[in-house]
């Protein structure tokens, strides 16, 4: 990362909390213009700021409206960069990405989808509110190489486990990866039964995983 400034993250967070889209967008553009990548923007500016927004919301320090506005601003900025992220050609590999059922936060897995695109993977980003039965139908149609699932709220951890068991039974040959803010609270024991599932903690690790994948 060519810009190492903690205040940048703070400035972006403040712009989100104050609903200042133009200011938030300028912070992102300035970050990219100094030679940083979109992956670094996601990992070092947007992600920590949204994690903080989530904490403030859980602690009832900000309203639901403020939390939703911060998310919408970030997602809008990401969409404005999309044409620059799309690869010239795909490498023939496909990924299906979605959230755990009942989840309402999709920005994190959207970042993951973009990192797949940066690595020339064709991504099928389904977002939130996708029932497992419909997901299974879609995966049978697309036949992806990887299925990626995001969990943002720990309350839905049981749903994630059920979802992974169903997907493993239906698609035993397809790689499964999981990630999301909620998983950072888990212990090694919680992951013990997931030896055949890859837990991705951040976008840099995802990038390395994809580049080394055979």
User: Structural class per helix/strand content?
Assistant: alpha/beta
The order of strands across the largest sheet is: 2-1-3-4-5
Percent in helix: 55-70%
For the record, give the distance between the C-alpha atoms at the N and C termini, rounded to a whole number.
27 Å
Number of DSSP helices?
9
Please give the radius of gyration in angstroms: 17 Å
Largest pleated sheet? 5 strands, parallel
Order of helices and strands: HHHHEHEHEHEHEH
Mean pLDDT: 91
Strand residues, percent = 5-15%
Q: Top keywords for this entry?
A:
214 residues, single chain, five-stranded parallel β-sheet, alpha/beta
Topology record:
Blueprint lengths: L5 H12 L3 H13 L4 H21 L5 H22 L8 E6 L7 H12 L3 E4 L6 H11 L3 E5 L6 H14 L4 E5 L8 H4 L6 E2 L3 H10 L2
Parallel strand pairs: 1-2, 1-3, 3-4, 4-5
Helix pairs in contact: 1-2, 1-3, 1-4, 3-4, 4-5, 5-9
Quick summary of this structure?
This protein is of the alpha/beta class. The chain has helices at 6-17, 21-33, 38-58, 64-85, 107-118, 132-142, 157-170, 188-191, 203-212, and strands at residues 94-99, 122-125, 146-150, 175-179, 198-199. Helix 8 links the parallel strand 4 (175-179) and strand 5.
Overview of this protein structure:
With 214 residues, this protein is α/β, with parallel strands linked by helices. The chain is 56% helix and 10% strand. It is built from 9 helices and 5 strands, in the order H-H-H-H-E-H-E-H-E-H-E-H-E-H. The protein has helices at 6-17, 21-33, 38-58, 64-85, 107-118, 132-142, 157-170, 188-191, 203-212; strands at residues 94-99, 122-125, 146-150, 175-179, 198-199. Strands 2-1-3-4-5 form a 5-stranded parallel sheet, with helices on both faces. Helix 5 links the parallel strand 1 (94-99) and strand 2. It is globular and about 45 Å long.
